[in-house]
Amino acid sequence: MRRWLTEGFVLVIAAVVAFPLFWMVLSAFKPEDEIISADPVPWTTRPTLDSFTRALTVANFGRYFVNSIVVALIVVALSILISFLAATALTRFRFRSRTTLLIMLLVVQMVPVEALTVPLFFLMRSVGDSVPVFGLNHLGSLVLVHLAFSLPFAIWMLRGFVAAVPVELEEAATLDGASRFRFLWQVLFPLVAPGLVATSVLSFIHAWNDFLFAKTFIISAVENQTLPLALQVFVKPDQNDWGAIMAGSTLMTIPVLIFFIFVQRRLVSGLAGAVKG
Amino acid sequence: MTAKGQGRTAFAYLAPALLVLGGLLAYPIYQLVLISLFDYGQEQVSGGAPLEFLGLGNYQKLLGDQQFWTVLGQTVGFAAVCVVGTLLVGAFLAILATRVRTWVRMTLFLAALGAWSTPAVAGSTIWLFLFDANFGFVNEVLGIQGFSWTFDKWTAFGLVAAQVIWCSFPFVMVTLYAGIKAIPGEVLEAAALDGASAFRTAWSVILPLLRPIILVVTIQSIIWDFKVFTQIYVMTNGGGIAGRNLVLNVYAYQQAFAASEYGLGAAIGVVMTVLLLGITMFYLRALKRSGEVL
């Protein structure tokens, strides 16, 4: 009897927690008159794709979606490459400044990156003078900052995975005549794949969700905005287009949700590996 | 391979990482401190006026400004409410999750996963819509149509805090749940054999065993909630009417990019960094004391 009560209670809580997401999807499919009705109801009898159409055509949401994807994927690819090399160097080699570097990696993770908006803004401004692609108003600037923010943690985490690969394997590969390069990419790289998945998810989500830097860097180039900013386009002081906002939010949330569900197991084991390492 | 050769290869591997981190993290940190020592306004940015070295002038101005102290107080208070709320909700649900059947637990975890993965901007707008004065479902249920949650300073802060708790409790819940599950069954059986009540078991057995994990999630939450930006910015439209819902992060942004007081904005950034590093030091110290190995 008591268990039934507890379970009922837990299910109610789950419903409350999920409700905002349910409401988002529901509102995205509601026709406009139901959205701005004074008596909103938690169902709809006339589902429609109008809001999605409006989001994708009027506000050019598709373009921003592509921008967001491009930034996030480039960040993921580069951070995998760079952090894999760095993690290998930090675990497989002994050199003098190794410990110093490790401690610096740890400290850098504690710096609130939000505080760096001002210097980064000026940095990107001067970078843009010589290499426009990485300057303000270009997606390159976002790629650069998110790459920098995701690297310390990615390196830190991959270190544990690289360390877990037995050194004998490298010796065996060398005996078999594999070059260092070949060992690195054909033996070691596939073996640390679970760690790569976990780190890339975190880098992806970081870049995908960013609002602050997108807002700071992409000032006038409307065509280079990313999703979080584009969502703000619909938010008007007096009359919000809630249908389109909810359709946009749905489009923005679904990739992350799918990603999260797919990798949650690997993520947990990846995080555990990093802690153990 | 010789030691020297090893070092050379290692640095070749490290070069890209060092380049990115040096250029985009270390250098900006140095620049942040530097800018905070100058009078850096619109005229200087456009290149019309020469830079004027102020020394600690920006900090003096900041510390003498009543608004800075109000914002600092609000930031601490807001973070405190969010942290306590997140921990209480997360811990409570983690305990409940151990007492229900698998499918019920999975339902709860799935809902939490959804809240967890919602991007901050999307989450903020969803909550705004749910609590909208005229078209919001919450006001319809409560029968208070026309009531604006974001107009009053305290209801606005409360609404944002609720949103922050909604998307951050899952982390605490999942971590604590894993922690509870890791406690060996024998320990709990022994406690039960000794006649300990459920409350006594929770308080004197489970809680001390979970202390290291609780510490980690607490400090992690403090660090996150102290620097909330998106939720405040989106939900209170940039810090509320006349800036009464500002927190440090948004305040720094507004000073720098809305008021073009880049020096002052950088100074706020430095203050925030120092405060957070202080918390982090405390965290590392506490971790060490609880016997955790780095």
TrEMBL record, chain A:
Highest taxon of the lineage: Bacteria
GO cellular component: plasma membrane
Keywords from the UniProt entry: Cell membrane, Membrane, Transmembrane, Transmembrane helix, Transport
Presence of the UniProt keyword Transmembrane in the record: yes
InterPro entries: BP-dep_ABC_trans_perm (IPR050901), MetI-like (IPR000515), MetI-like_sf (IPR035906)
Residue spans crossing the bilayer: 9-29, 64-90, 102-123, 143-162, 183-205, 242-263
Cell compartments where the protein resides: Cell membrane
Domain ABC transmembrane type-1: 65-263
Primary localization class, coarse: membrane
Family per record: Belongs to the binding-protein-dependent transport system permease family.
Protein's recorded name: Carbohydrate ABC transporter membrane protein 2, CUT1 family
Organism, as annotated: Lentzea albida
From TrEMBL, chain B:
Membrane topology qualifier: Multi-pass membrane protein
A Pfam family: BPD_transp_1
Transmembrane segments: 12-30, 76-96, 108-130, 156-180, 201-223, 262-284
GO biological process: transmembrane transport
Main location: membrane
Residue span(s) of domain ABC transmembrane type-1: 72-283
Phylogenetic placement of the source organism: Bacteria, Bacillati, Actinomycetota, Actinomycetes, Pseudonocardiales
Gene Ontology CC annotation, any one: plasma membrane
Keyword Transmembrane helix belongs to the record: yes
Subcellular location: Cell membrane
Recorded family membership: Belongs to the binding-protein-dependent transport system permease family.
Name recorded for this polypeptide: Carbohydrate ABC transporter membrane protein 1, CUT1 family
Keywords: Cell membrane, Membrane, Transmembrane, Transmembrane helix, Transport
CDD domains named in the record: TM_PBP2
